[in-house]
Amino acid sequence: MSRIHFDVTHPAHVHLFRHAIRELVDDGHHVAVSSRDKELTTELLDAFEIPHTVLSTMGTHKAELVSEWVGRSVRTLQYDYRFDPDVVVSRLSPSAVAAATATGAAGVAFHDHEGTNRLASLLAPFLDRICTPASFEAEFGASHRRHEGVQELAYLHPDRFTPDRDRLRDHGVEPDEPYTVLRFVSMGAHHDVGLQGISESAQRRLVQELSVHGPVYVSAEGSIPEDLPGEQMPVPPALMHDLLGEASLLVTDSNTMATEAGLLGTPVVRSGAYAATDEFSNFAVLGDAGLVESIADETAAVDRAIELATDPDAGDRWQRRREAYLDDAIDVTQYIVDTVLEVADE
Questions:
Q1: Residue 195 — very low, low, confident or very high, per pLDDT cuts 50/70/90?
Q2: Per-residue confidence (pLDDT) for residue 226, from 0 to 100
Q3: Can you tell me the distance from the alpha carbon of 208 to that of 205, in angstroms, rounded to the nearest whole number?
Q4: Does residue 297 sit in the same domain as residue 338?
């Protein structure tokens, strides 16, 4: 049996790796998980009953972030000297890659953001595998492997997830009635510098216009403006995908949540600064599949959202497009498990 260390530093990484962690544990492998106290990361790990060790807490300013990552690198190295892994798995974490190299473990990283390709190029020579979606044009050398589908299929492939309508009803959400989800991000990550999300004025218009068609649930990484109407999220974070899967519409500047809703067959309007860039090749694929509409001009994005909210056939169209897209997609969790065990056996 192999000894495998998963380094989880962001809420999205919890979803990416949680099924693989469970399968490897169930198959008898020794799995250790290190975490970062960032946003909902530790809360999600606890909700999914994944034991983990917190190695750092997210800093709020540049100096604090630098100090955090220096300390985290030291603690990750100490962690792996104690655990003695065969493989260290991360989503392109420098501290995890460094610890794998220093302890003689194999390194595996999953990467899906072209905006961090420079970091990927720097780390690739120290990795046994760096795995990206097939849509990536960048090359990362001998360790680079490509897979069909997007990383979010690790937890939203139909073999892994079906929205639970009863759990929504338990939290006061009626899945047979229309409702909209709005998700706004803080644009505070290092790769977000200089970029803006959906403005407060556009947020207000979205809530005012879409509330006519049913409840509007608003989620934000930062604080929500006090005068913004709308309702708070009715479900805990672990049930967010159930909420997205039964929603009539998602409007967001979150790249991850836009992808998730599209994969669930929910109509999506993605706006904000990233909608005008090509830093996420996934969205070229998802756009061609008709699963995510990326509209950089926020006035046009709001107009399109209102149009979709009044279109009774939008949901059925998205579901048909989803089925067509999934015909060529893979179960990314199985790909993660196969890749980790392949490297462990080398």
A1: very low
A2: 65
A3: 5
A4: no
Where does residue 208 fall: left (phi above 0), alpha (psi -120 to 50 degrees), or beta otherwise?
Answer: alpha
Give every CB contact of residue 278 below 8 A, 6+ residues apart in sequence.
114, 284
Place of tokens 């540049």: 62
Indicate if 150 and 170 belong to the same structural domain. no
4 Cα distance to chain centroid: 22
Q: Strands 293-294 and 268-270: what pairing? A: parallel
215 and 239 housed in the same domain: yes
Yes or no: say if 250 and 256 are a contact pair by the CB < 8 Å rule.
no
Query: Are residues 23 and 148 located together in one domain of the fold?
Result: yes
- pTM, to two decimals: 0.90
**Amino acid present at 221:** E
Q: How does pLDDT run across 66-107, given as a tens digit for each residue?
A: 888 888 899 999 999 999 999 999 999 999 999 999 999 999
Bridge partners (DSSP) of residue 251 are 182, 269
Closest to 230 in 3D by CA, of 260, 267, 256, 205? 205
What length is written for the chain? 346
Q: Could you tell me if 103 and 180 lie in one domain? A: no
Domain hosting residue 186, numbered range: 165-326
* One domain, residues 169 and 32: no
Are 172 and 151 within one domain?
Answer: no
In terms of C-beta distances under 8 Å and separation of at least 24 residues, what long-range contacts does 282-287 make, across chains too?
282/112, 282/133, 282/135, 282/150, 283/255, 283/258, 283/259, 284/135, 285/133, 285/135, 285/150, 286/150, 286/259, 286/262, 286/325
Tell me the C-alpha distance between 225 and 6, whole Å.
37
- As for how many domains the chain has, the answer is 2
Say which residues have a Cβ less than 8 Å from residue 228's Cβ, sequence separation at least 6: 200, 203, 204, 207, 218
